[in-house]
Amino acid sequence: MYRLLLPYFAVCFFSLIFINMKNSYTEILLSESAQKEGAGEIQSSQPGKPLPCQPTPPAELGPFYEPNAPERMSVGTGHTLSGVVRSSADCSPIKGARIEIWLAGPDGKYSSDYRATLYSKKSGEYRFESHFPPSYSGRPPHIHIKIEARGYQTLITQFYPIKGQFDSKFDLVLVPISQ
Ligand SMILES: [Fe+2]
Fold it and tell me: What are phi and psi of 178, to 5 degrees?
C-alpha cells in the first residue's frame, strides 16, 4: 500500500512545484509587459499636443526707441524677418499682437525712416522687410522689437540676423500675465 502511495505523493509534490514555477514565470512576463506599456504611455502621453514654447529672451530697450512709429510692413528691401507670435503656455498663436520694430539705417544711424508698427495676423504670423541692418558702434547687426498683446507681458527683444542670410525666421513667444 505504502509503495503505491509514495509515487502518488511524489507526483503531486513535483506537480505543485511545477505549477508554482509556471505561475511565477508568467507573473514576471506580465510585469515586464506592463512596464513596457507603461513606458509607451509616458512617451506618447497626450499625442498631438505641442510641447511648451520657451519664452523669447528679453533684451534692452536701448536709447533709440521712439513710440508711435508709422504702421507699415516695410522700410526697405534686402532682408525679411518673419515668424509667429505665440503663447509660452501652449504655443498657440496670438493674433493682433502689436509689434514695433526699429533698426539702424544703412548709414548706421537711427531715424524715423526705419521704424514701423505692425500687427500679427489671425495665424499669429508677422512679416517685416528692410535693408540688412548694419553694424554700428561695434555692435553686430540687429533689429529691435517690442511686442504687446492683451493678457501677455510686454516683450522687448533684439534679433541678430546672420550675415548672408536674407530671409530670417524669428518666433516671438510671450509669457501670459498670471491671474
Ligand atoms: Fe540698436
Answer: -70, 140
**Average pLDDT of the chain to the nearest whole number:** 81
Phi, psi of 145 (to 5 degrees): -140, 135
**Residues 70-79: tens digit of each pLDDT:** 999 999 999 9
- What pTM was estimated for this model as a whole? 0.71
What's the gap in Å between 92 CA and the centre of ligand 1? 30
Ligand 1 centroid, distance to 165 Cα (angstroms): 19
22 phi, psi to nearest 5 deg: -65, -45
Ligand 1 centroid to Cα of residue 127, in Å, is 20
* Rounded Cα gap, residues 141 and 138, in angstroms: 9
Radius of gyration of the chain (CA): 32
Backbone angles phi, psi at 9, to 5 degrees: -65, -35
Nearest C-alpha neighbor of 88 from the set 168, 131, 147, 34: 147
Q: What is the distance in A from the centroid of ligand 1 to the CA of 143?
A: 7
Tell me, in angstroms, the distance from the centre of ligand 1 to residue 59's CA: 11
